[in-house]
């Protein structure tokens, strides 16, 4: 039996309405269909169209709720797993993050907009590289932006694989250590959240304080290797290296300790006579400051790291400052150190004995002393000026002064990049 097209039917030979219909139009069509198929003219106890539409809506809601429940359960499982993976029993505070650690911890505050603004172009007239804001200024005139690095406190060239190590200033989150590859690629975070960071003069080793422990590791190609650790008293921090041993400053007036990290734990006793350390001679002895003489006063000494920094030669004479600022030349002949007054002193370590030969050497050291291979000491004074201490000129009676560095914005301070010492 053939079917006669109904003008109200949507299934005609030529569709009278478009296929792209709204939900309201579908519901209205469904109600019309049910209404035509109902034989009884009286009102129904329940509207079949409403029941069908309600069932469909409830099915959609149940599916949506089921999806939300599954998503919530997955979120809880992932969060719980992350919490378990991130838990480190026995640690307090924010731990230092080492390269390769899967946790995402902010390395340090990013440079401000003013730091990221390139300094005015111009030659940086210094024998060593400088970091100005977030820019590396080579002594040959080359310039490179250190994206994501800063604010910077220290920088050190790395032997063998090249590049440099950059240490941040202390922040509420701790200190950050970056490795800047020599090929121009982006800097890499080696440490984040460390309490203190110390580098070997050749850049091949790094030591840091994290929580209750002191750590040390070798550094090759931007990777920390052979990491060792030892418990340390509260406030004890690494300050340098003597060969493979780490020099650790004890809190307060507790002196210094030598940690032979490849041989055992931190010794329980310290050399309390040592007040400061300035560097290491080519023969491995440490140049430091001790309390000696009668009456007791700060004097210079050569210390034996194999015997816990016991003094092997001491020399008194000039009045020395006790802030620990100073540095030893690569050949081990000269020491630039702060005096008790407002200036620095150039000390001939070859004369270290019962007396010390020292010459006035210009403004006081406020940060790192960086020696060049030609025997010139560089440092930045309190006003951000560069001070050159040329040994031969100081011996001839010259009093070095501070000179401004090209390209440094007002109020900023350049950071010297120390060269490697083999």
* Overall radius of gyration: 36 Å
Subunit organisation of the chains? single chain
Principal-axes shape call: globular
Q: Briefly note the structural class of the backbone.
A: alpha+beta
The residue-averaged pLDDT reads 80
Largest sheet: 9 strands, mixed
Biggest sheet: strand arrangement:
1-8-7-6-5-28-2-3-4
Keywords: Membrane, Transmembrane, Transmembrane helix
Tell me what the structure shows.
The chain has a domain at 273-408. 15% of the residues lie in helices and 34% in strands. It is built from 4 helices and 28 strands. The protein has helices at residues 23-37, 48-86, 113-116, 391-395; strands at 97-98, 130-132, 135-137, 143-145, 152-157, 164-168, 175-180, 188-194, 196-199, 205-210, 213-220, 223-231, 237-242, 245-249, 256-259, 274-280, 286-292, 297-304, 310-315, 326-328, 334-338, 343-348, 358-363, 370-371, 376-380, 386-390, 402-403, 415-418. The chain crosses the membrane at residues 64-85. Residues 400-422 are annotated as: Disordered.
Overview features:
422 residues; alpha+beta; 4-stranded antiparallel β-sheet; 15% helix; globular; 9-stranded mixed β-sheet; 4 helices; 34% strand; disordered N terminus
Topology (SSEs and partners):
Layout lengths: L22 H15 L10 H39 L10 E2 L14 H4 L13 E3 L2 E3 L5 E3 L6 E6 L6 E5 L6 E6 L7 E7 L1 E4 L5 E6 L2 E8 L2 E9 L5 E6 L2 E5 L6 E4 L14 E7 L5 E7 L4 E8 L5 E6 L10 E3 L5 E5 L4 E6 L9 E6 L6 E2 L4 E5 L5 E5 H5 L6 E2 L11 E4 L4
Parallel strand pairs: 5-28
Antiparallel strand pairs: 1-8, 2-3, 2-28, 3-4, 5-6, 6-7, 7-8, 9-10, 10-11, 11-12, 13-14, 14-15, 16-17, 17-18, 18-19, 20-21, 21-22, 22-23, 24-25, 25-26, 26-27
Helix pairs in contact: 1-2
